[in-house]
Amino acid sequence: MIVSTLQKIIGSSRDIDWGHGRSRRFLIKKDAMGFSFTDTLVEQGVNLVLQYKNHLEACYILEGEGQLTNEESGEKYAIAPGLFYAFDKHERHRVEAFSKLRMLCVFSPALEGDEKHSHKDKDSHGDSSY
Question: CA-CA distance, 117 to 105, in Å (whole number)?
Fold first, then answer.
């Protein structure tokens, strides 16, 4: 059994500054669950284009507002508490944070634990390193 708390994660090696927020990683590859589970913060004002080429991702929004855009189809979705989304085909997507966002995320396969996005700035079009 694996048991933890957010307080134990904050400030530990599992509390990752990913460039525009924090990724508090409850489960990583070495936990041998086959997926990762994170409590992720995105800073207000972030506007990033991302694509996870090596992982599938699912997110549930707990706090904040913004916009999610599927860069391939052009579809736009309002980010607000209660929204769930999943990238089941490694879609290239844009995340815009109108306020600070907090979300719970699952990655499959599991993250090693120290991955960060490889972007240049808030208007990046770079792919993530995931």
Answer: 15
Q: What pLDDT score was predicted for residue 123? A: 39
| 56-63: strand order across its sheet | 15-17, 21-27, 36-42, 101-108, 56-63, 84-87
- pLDDT tens digit string along 43-86? 999 999 988 888 899 999 999 999 999 999 999 999 999 999 99
What residues does each domain of the chain span? 6-108
The secondary structure of 57-79 as a DSSP string is EEEEEEE--EEEEETTT--EEEE
Peptide bond before residue 81 is cis, with ω within 30 degrees of 0: no
Residues 123 and 62: their CA atoms lie apart, in Å, by: 24
Query: What pTM was estimated for this model as a whole?
Result: 0.87
Name the CATH code of domain 6-108 (choices 3.30.565.10, 3.50.50.60, 2.60.120.10, 3.40.50.2300): 2.60.120.10
